[in-house]
Amino acid sequence: MEVSANLAGKCNMKNADATTVPAFRQRRSAQLAEGELRHLEMILASFVEGSAASDRLPAKYWDMRISQLDEQYDLVPSQSHRVASLQRKLALLDKALDTAADAQDRQQSRRAAA
To answer: What is the Cα 51 distance to its own chain's centre?
Structure first.
């Protein structure tokens, strides 16, 4: 009987292991996300303040970083709202930078043609 009880215990452990999420797949806590959120908010604020666009990493990189927050952290509702806000701000900023770059290119083309 002890052997069958041990076997049953081992089978139950195997089933428990199969249903638990591996540590590398678990989401990080909302508390850990706070530092990332503050960092990304600071970065976007510095974009608005206006350092040279050529010195920045591309918007695609920052979009990936922001998206990772949703994927890798168990965010509380207020943090989810901040992530959505960051995504909107980045999209607007990226569009504004593209518009400014296009205007600058047109101006340089006119100068070269003159």
So the answer is: 22
Residues 6+ positions from 56 with CB-CB distance below 8 Å: 47
**Cα angle 108, 111, 112; round to 5:** 85
| pTM recorded for the entire structure | 0.63
Residue extents of the structural domains in the chain: 27-103
Does residue 48 surpass a pLDDT of 80?
A: no
**What is the enclosing helix (H) or strand (E) of 76?**
none
- What are the residues whose beta carbons fall under 8 Å from the beta carbon of 26, sequence distance 6 or more? none
Cβ-contact 79, 33 below 8 angstroms: yes
b/e code 78-88 from CB counts within 10 Å (16+ = b): ebeebbeebbe
Structure tokens at 75: 């965010």
